[in-house]
Write a structure and sequence with these properties.
mainly beta, Cathepsin D, subunit A, domain 1, 6-stranded mixed β-barrel, 2 domains, 8-stranded mixed beta sheet
Length: 277
């Protein structure tokens, strides 16, 4: 299982956003992806060097890269660190680097502050050939359309007035998520807030939520007949029950087994998720 969630402090997030020169276009940009062990992986160019990045919508950072890639692209250490908490509650520090340019599809981000890819030994990332991770910080001016069946991510700039493929049932981001894709959801056990996490190979709920809401088991999997989002039922959906250390505002993840069957738009400019049936 990968490390599906990293929540960084708001200061780190703001630094990542302000440090990048966001090169926007008016047109939607299609980025091909491969699904490797249920994880979306795209090819980016960093300093002109092709790099495989796993897109992790549960990561609020910009980009994290292996030391080998940072050395190859001649990224410059800033001497600063950001801090995050992984899904097991480990507090991590990430050395920051200035990266000259990152090109994703036809979009180029310049002067990006990225990080060294670091994981606690108890919560290692699944290796599928990725050389780093793309988080959400660089994408805040885009509607990010995840279309697994067609193996593509479409980036629709906020300046583009045509919604394009970003359509469906709108579900607002929760205020507690601070601009990240977390929403309210109702399942058979009750109401909770979930993070929409492309880094989760399966949808999950925390053991503590399951126990507090009367689940007959506190391990294994739970098949919920209902998954209600903004009044629309997208169930059934199976959740893995995991021992997770999560911020108090949410109790689980929507993962691959949902994305595989629905086109999902993470609409960062409007702070909402839109879901096609």
């Amino acid at each position: 299982m990968t490390a599906p969630f990293v929540f960084r402090t708001s200061i780190s997030f703001l630094v990542a956003c302000l440090a990048a020169d966001f090169a926007l276009t008016d047109s939607a940009v299609i980025v091909p992806i491969r699904l490797l062990q249920h994880f979306p992986v795209l090819s980016a160019k960093i300093g002109g060097v092709p790099v495989l990045l796993q897109f992790d919508s549960g990561n609020s950072g910009s980009v994290s890269l292996t030391q080998a890639v940072l050395d190859t692209v001649k990224a410059v250490p800033t001497g600063e660190f950001s801090q995050g908490i992984d899904g097991k509650g480990n507090v991590m520090k990430y050395p920051k680097y200035k990266i000259p340019a990152i090109k994703i599809g036809a979009v180029t981000f310049k002067d990006v502050i990225g990080e060294l890819d670091v994981h606690d030994p108890s919560y290692q990332a699944t290796q599928v050939g990725q050389q780093g991770f793309l988080g959400t910080a660089l994408l805040k001016n885009y509607r990010v359309v995840l279309d697994y069946s067609h193996r593509r991510i479409t980036l629709v700039p906020s300046e583009n007035k045509e919604r394009g493929p970003c359509i469906g049932t709108p579900v607002p981001f929760s205020q507690e998520a601070h601009g990240e894709p977390g929403t309210k959801a109702d399942i058979d056990l009750g109401s909770m807030t979930v993070a929409w996490d492309t880094g989760a190979p399966v949808s999950m709920i925390s053991k503590s939520f399951a126990e507090a809401n009367g689940a007959q088991q506190s391990a294994g999997s739970l098949k919920s007949k209902h998954l209600t989002l903004s009044g629309a039922d997208f169930g059934p959906l199976s959740f893995q029950i995991e021992e997770l250390s999560l911020p108090p505002w949410f109790a689980g993840f929507i993962g691959y087994n949902f994305f595989a069957h629905h086109v999902v738009c993470l609409d960062f400019p409007q702070n909402q998720v839109l879901i096609q049936r």
